[in-house]
Amino acid sequence: MHLTVRAGAVIFLLSVAAIAGSKPGIVWDAGGVTGRDVWSARGNGKKVRLRTGRNDEDATLLTVSPNGRRIAWWLVAPGQTALRDLVVARTAGGRGRNVTEKLDGKVVTAKFTGDSKHVLFIHEDAATGRADLWRANARGKGLRNLTAELTGTATGTIHVSQFDAEVLVVWEFADRTGLVLADVRRGVPTVLDTDLPEGAPGGYAFWPEAGVLHFTWRETGAEKDDLWQRDETNLERRVTEIDSARGLATEATVAVRGVELLLVEHDDLRTFPAPARILRVSRGIANQRPVVAVEGDGRVRVYELDSHDEPRELLPQESLDEVEEIVVAVEQGFTYVTGKSEGVRRLFFLVPSHSSTPGDLADGLPGRVGALRTLLPTGGLIFSMVAEHGSFGEFHVSRAQYVVDTLIARTDLVGLPGRAVVSPKSGDVLFNVIAMPEADNRVFLWDRKKDEIRPLTPPNQRPGTFLFTR
To answer: Which of 27, 122, 232, 292 is paired with 50 by a 20 to 30 Å CA distance?
Structure first.
């Protein structure tokens, strides 16, 4: 079915639209010159304003709890940029609770724990400038400073376990930059780097499973980071001198080391050799087979790697100057590659077959490939095409069978495509369009089951962050 949607025919206000009860909720922040609010849309389509206090206060959406029941946002009073409070509320509606109302200073960042029972945040004291890690329960009560007994200050960088209630904080001591690991339930911080060689954090942290932490650390004098693992009994160096590391949804860390890609699990380490230095790794690893871009012989090549077979070149007939992104649909194995050939950005699609011929999804479409490339649960891809002069754009969707349909055409919503968020539960899509020339930013919902697009925000409301609750 073709997805070209005519605005006058099917677009109508979300506030009067019925959404199936199985649909996830939606939260976003928006407002005018008199202040910004946080809003939510329930499963039945009714919009709810999550009240922030006075009408002239500005609210900026931060995050949603993993179970989708709670939401957190920043709250800033007019003219008080140095003072920033944290508010939590139920996504279903009701007045939010100002967690930091009795604290003088500003909240730097905030995240919910993986079990959704607590909210963690870094708060910088207005008088001393010191930043600490604080904890409150998901309702905003039980406020506690977890790092009050430590010397130094938090940097504002926190990594939260997606499984339970552990948090890793980058900490500035008087003589070094280190790491503090905190058990949120017990409220006990541990200075992690006392058992590490002298050095500094590398910036990466990920929990591949509950109780197991992967993080990077650069030893003093070294030029590259090492990947370390900490579990309930051991602290060990798993991989040395890596170029980069990234956590995977498949509960593993992928690390790049020159011409090697390493898949690091809690009790396993696999190496995938590449023909040349690895520049880029795919988002998503289908069947444990990573796709990488490598540099060699004056051009960039794309390979699928296997720990047992020889690397397979996916675009042997293409001469690429640069590969910008590789996306792999984990379940279906479809691969998308965005790269430049002689200055022209192209978007390739490959099916999971050794005999498959790649196709250019942007071939024949007006304009140039934009930056938006969002994967659907079905393995399809949403991408944007933008006019050369930059005054309009279009959303398109690939059905993963070399078929490209127009999701938003120039004749429907004239403007520039922004970003898109996909619900992993329903596959519905939130996206924003910036109408030109007035630069009016609006958020729309694509209900994929009904094949309808509806505006979520009215004109001139300056929407910012928008998320599905689960």
So the answer is: 122
Long-range contacts of residues 71-77, Cβ cutoff 8 Å, at least 24 apart: 71/27, 71/38, 71/40, 71/469, 72/110, 72/112, 72/119, 73/29, 73/38, 74/107
pLDDT at res. 151: 95
Q: Hunting for tokens 């506030």 — which residue is that? A: 15
In the chain, % of residues over pLDDT 70: 90
* End-to-end Cα spacing for the chain: 27
pLDDT tens readout for residues 119-151: 999 999 999 999 999 999 999 999 999 999 999
CA distances from 167 to 143, 144, 180, 287 (A): 16, 15, 8, 30
- Could you tell me the maximum CA-CA distance found in the chain, to the nearest angstrom? 66
pLDDT of residue 123: 96
Number of neighbours of residue 4 by Cβ within 10 angstroms: 11
Residue 6 confidence (pLDDT): 27
Q: 363-385 pLDDT, tens per residue?
A: 888 888 988 889 988 888 999 98
382 touches 395 (CB < 8 A): yes
